[in-house]
Amino acid sequence: MSETSYDLVVIGGGPGGYVAAIRAAQLGLKSAVIDENQKFGGTCLRVGCIPSKALLESSHLLVEARDKMMEHGITATKLTVDLNTMMRRKAGVVDTLTGGVAMLLKRNKVDAIVGRAELVGDGKIKVGDNSVSAKHIVIATGSKPMKLPGIQLDGDLIGDSTAALSYNNVPRRLVVIGGGYIGLELGSVWSRLGAEVAILEGTDQVLSGLDQEIARAAVKTFEKQGLHFRTNMWVESVEKNAGGCVVTCKGENPIECDRVLVAAGRSPNTRNLGLETAGVQTDKHGFIEVGGNFQTSAQGIYAIGDCIGGAMLAHKASEEGIACIEKIANGTGHVNYDVIPAIVYTWPEIASVGKTEQQLKDAGIAYVKGSCPFGANGRARAIGDFDGKIKILADKQTDRILGVHAIGPHAGDLISEAAVAMNFGATSEDLARCCHAHPTLSEIMQEAALAVAGRAIHT
Questions:
Q1: Measured by CB atoms within 10 angstroms of the end CB, which terminus of the chain is less buried, N or C?
Q2: Which of 41, 37, 34 is nearest to 6 (CA)?
Q3: Phi, psi of 131 (to 5 degrees)
């Protein structure tokens, strides 16, 4: 068995792992990243964020052409959907970006090692018939779709998000188990393409982690688009029959459908890594326990991203990867967990950063809020997408921005301004006094900031 030594090895080539490896190389560390897949980029690039956004864009264009072009004086007839072409485009986007990751690793002189990694102790990692060793090891193995009791996935009629990215036809009836980000995004894709979509949520709230005023507005909009929501639906079993599938929920009549998408959350991808052998502790859910510098219970082994819990977001993993490496290399590095934006890429988009109203109430923090509807904005009216609003929550005493929540076109892009402002400790007045170009959607953010102090001009 051959062995190669490195200053630092990252296990997992996703948005946390490959970014960490590149940053380590930039800081002069001889680095390698190990991933069991031939294409690096992790779940996000291969079977998550990127392919889902490609399908969301394709299906959105269909809706635009079918439902909105006529009001612009443009008539399109005999619209058809070539699902194979759509899937090829999705695959092309993925190939381009995973190829880009490979190029970045090579350019930064990071060794990309393909294989299943297993910690064997003393800074050593077994990869197939070979072995590598490192002074520092970073675990960035991410997460995987959560399995539910009573549901056996077959990867076809009953599948997770990965399967739903590659259906070979549009199901007539699709049941989505889970009313979170993933369920809504993929449910939207197949609804736009012609499926009758029912979303089953086990709790009493869809998008429970979001500001509930925004979440309620989102549900109303999605219902108008044709999505059907049923809350407090505890799924007990899913079975296949001659006509498709049958979903059984506690105390409810069975639901018949053609396909089932299980999108009930994600769990840490930490099994069979040799964690016990290396002395790395996990909690009861399998998340790796780390300290403030991402150090695990084992000397020289660190962990970042989904596998340590918290917000399971690609950009959060990337930030942790950079901060972890900088702490290892020079003792610095920081992640502001209070300012991690989150986006649901439906249409309209939903975006948030900071605290929700309920969180502020629960914490006993006095706040003031201001909001502005997209309908009051000239640019939104001009493009014909004006459903939604932006809401800003500010500390009642200091006026410091505590949270911003939005639903509307391009909300995911607009939220970045709020994240930057909050990261620098800005007040709502600071944001309101920044000149915003006209006519742009960004003016909605300024107007909402003005509304915090009762100084709104256009609403």
A1: N
A2: 34
A3: -145, 145
> Is 421:414 a contact under the CB 8 Å cutoff?
no
- Helices 411-423 and 443-452: angle between axes, nearest 10 degrees: 50
Within a domain: 255: yes
pTM, 2 dp: 0.96
CA torsion 68-69-71-74 (nearest 10°) is -170
pLDDT score of 76: 84
**Where do the H-state alpha helices sit in 34-156?**
42-47, 49-63, 83-107
DSSP H stretches of helix in 64-153: 83-107
Residue 206: CATH number of its domain: 3.50.50.60
CB neighbours of 67 closer than 8 A, spacing ≥ 6? none
Give mean pLDDT, residues 199-223: 96
Is 246 in the same domain as 272? no
Distance CA 30, CA 7 (A): 5
Contact 133, 77 (CB under 8 A): no
Task: For Cα atoms 268, 269, 275, give the angle at the middle one, nearest 5 degrees.
Answer: 100
Please give the tally of structural domains in the chain.
Answer: 3
Confirm whether 60 is a catalytic residue: no
Domain residues for the domain of 412 are 339-452
State whether residue 43 is helix, strand or coil: helix
Task: Give the confidence band of 1 by pLDDT, cuts at 50, 70, 90.
Answer: low
* Set 136, 405, 438, 458: catalytic member: 438
The string of pLDDT tens digits covering residues 271-322 is 999 999 999 999 999 999 999 899 999 999 999 999 999 999 999 999 999 9
| Token couple for 43 | 């779940």
Residue 40 structure tokens:
């690096």
Q: Are 140 and 23 in contact (CB under 8 A)?
A: no
Is the pLDDT score of 441 beyond 70? yes
Domain shared by 9 and 112, yes or no: yes
Residues 6+ apart with CB under 8 A from 96: none
* Same domain assignment for residues 23 and 125: yes
Per-residue pLDDT tens over the stretch 390-426: 999 999 999 999 999 999 999 999 999 999 999 999 9
Tell me the pLDDT tens digit for each residue of 6-45.
999 999 999 999 999 999 999 999 999 999 999 999 999 9
